[in-house]
Specification:
Length: about 325
């Protein structure tokens, strides 16, 4: 229930609807509108408005119902929306641009975890088929600023991002993604991490040795499938790969992970070196001891011998039909 504190209306109706004053306030929010619209096609109109409260914005709409020009500004965060709405009564279309000097998250934090500066978002089309493009500079805690670009298209049942790009001094990421909700939510993802410099987060990590990765993932209904992923460290022989299938609602995890030539620090002249898969664990076991193999209700870990060049470790976790604690079984084999 909304309780109005005040309501004012003054205007006239003849050949046009004229609103000389419309003002309403309720619970520290206020809206004021002035404008007019003619009843004769194509219905010329001009409207000015402003709001005060949680969302403080103002702007104007002018033109006809065949082509409306928008110009709207939001105070905090500072943002501006302008563009055109076309064929509103017949087949509505739009051609819009949203700009902001800085968009923060969370919005009300003085030191936000993330922010996009110089944001420019454009969209063109209609509900049955439209395009969307975004560009700006991403700033996030622990990262140097990087260029963010998104290009995609959508319809009432899906959205496809043909490109999601992040490029900065510490990282370079290229991603494609598609989201569909025609029957149930489906998400597919292809990502390529071309460069990530861990120096900021990992003490002792050498310079000019970047993480490189590739990932494919699919989420359909209650199942998440990772057909494959690959991880490498530039300038070293280290490489890791694997795949997984997860059913969160059914407490099922099947996965395989393999690595070769693990060394620390990466690229050192005389590194600590382990040739194969020397530790792999899931679900953070409560009492895990490196150098052992076992399982409990929370996870599984394994440590193979040291004489092989590479190893792989397959993990499965299933909840019995009886509802008892999950059963986990590690399987270890030489590559």
């Amino acid at each position: 229930v909304i309780e109005l504190e005040s309501l004012q209306l003054r205007g006239s109706i003849h050949k046009a609807l004229v609103v000389e004053q419309f003002a309403v306030s309720a619970e520290q929010h206020a809206l004021a509108i002035q404008g007019q619209m003619e009843f004769t096609p194509p219905h010329p109109l001009e409207l000015k408005f402003n709001t005060v409260g949680e969302f403080t914005l103002g702007g104007q709409v002018s033109g006809t119902l065949d082509q409306l020009q928008l110009d709207i500004e939001h105070e905090t965060p500072s943002a501006r929306l302008n563009g055109r709405l076309l064929d509103i009564l017949a087949a509505p279309r739009w051609d819009l641009e949203l700009t902001s000097p800085e968009l923060r998250w969370p919005l009300d934090e003085p030191d936000p975890q993330a922010a996009i500066k110089g944001l420019r978002l454009t969209s063109k089309g209609q509900w049955s088929g439209y395009t969307l493009n975004l560009a700006g500079t991403l700033e996030a805690a622990g990262l140097e600023p990087g260029a963010l670009e998104i290009a995609g298209s959508g319809d009432p049942d899906s959205f496809s991002a043909s490109r999601i790009s992040l490029d900065g001094p510490q990282f370079a990421l290229e991603t494609e993604a598609e989201i569909s909700w025609r029957q149930e939510l489906e998400v597919t993802l292809q990502a390529a991490l071309e460069r990530l410099d861990p120096v900021t987060w990992i003490e002792g990590w050498p310079e000019n040795h970047f993480l490189e990765a590739q990932l494919a993932a699919e989420w359909r209904g209650d199942e998440v499938v990772v057909p494959g992923f690959k991880l490498a460290v530039s300038g070293t022989p280290f490489v890791a790969s694997g795949n997984a299938r997860v059913e969160p609602s059914g407490s099922v995890v099947d996965g395989q992970f393999e690595w070769q030539s693990l060394e620390w620090p990466p690229g050192a002249e005389f590194p600590f070196h382990r040739p194969g898969c020397w530790l792999q664990r899931r679900y953070s076991p409560t009492n895990s001891v490196p150098g052992t193999t076992g399982s409990n209700g929370f996870g599984t870990w394994c440590a193979p011998g040291q004489s092989k060049r590479s190893k792989n470790c397959s993990i499965s976790r299933r909840r019995p039909a009886s509802g008892k604690a999950p059963v986990m079984a590690p399987a270890l084999s030489a590559a």
